[in-house]
Amino acid sequence: AQSVAQPEDQVNVAEGNPLTVKCTYSVSGNPYLFWYVQYPNRGLQFLLKYITGDNLVKGSYGFEAEFNKSQTSFHLKKPSALVSDSALYFCAVREYGNKLVFGAGTILRVKS
Amino acid sequence: DGGITQSPKYLFRKEGQNVTLSCEQNLNHDAMYWYRQDPGQGLRLIYYSQIVNDFQKGDIAEGYSVSREKKESFPLTVTSAQKNPTAFYLCASSLTGELFFGEGSRLTVL
Q: How far apart are CA A104 and CA B49, in angstroms?
């Protein structure tokens, strides 16, 4: 079965500093990977996806993710964090039947 | 505007009652999904449907039921058999891979 792991429950970063939210995956075959963001009491918003091609994927709101096959990782990055980036972030992998399997989530706190 | 509408946003239920959560989409997506979210556990798949009149159980289907009579609609019924129904429920739809989510329904059992 496909799975993803988010090793950090929470990430703290100062506004203006670069941020990284980590995700590792375990799949059979080629991975289809996704990042979503969730604000309190809201649904999830799609940020970006990796299907194939360039290892650096650019997404919404200035976020990008780096796919690393040798380390089985798909870390979410942003060069300069904003206070408004504070939210819950989910990594996900596509499974058979076009279903998504989600990680447990990482809380990002950006302090001014 | 195109999107996914879930209702109600908040719902309170007494133990032993069935409740139905509504999910409607006007994105013309074939696939629809129901996930349950609990703190610290991420999202878990309850049911999904790839086409009208067909649906499959997800990882935690016990105590839930669904129907898919129309492409636009995928209601979820939380039955009295669900032992711990208090949670945030999210509906999603998909056409080419990524899921688009509604705003969620928060169910609280009193």
A: 24
Q: A85 φ, ψ to 5°? A: -80, -10
Tell me whether residues B100 and A46 touch, CB distance under 8 A.
yes
- pLDDT greater at residue B89 or residue A1: B89
- Give the angle subtended at the CA of B74 by the CAs of B43 and B60, to the nearest 5°: 35
pLDDT band of residue B1 (cuts 50, 70, 90) is low
Contact B104 A97 (CB under 8 A): no
Q: Express as a percent the part of chain A with pLDDT over 90.
A: 88
Query: What is the least distance, in Å, from the CA of B98 to any CA of chain A?
Result: 7
pLDDT of residue A98: 84
| DSSP symbols for B23-38 | EEE-S--SEEEEEEE-
**A:B CB pairs within 8 Å:** 56
Contacts B35 to A, Cβ<8 Å: 102
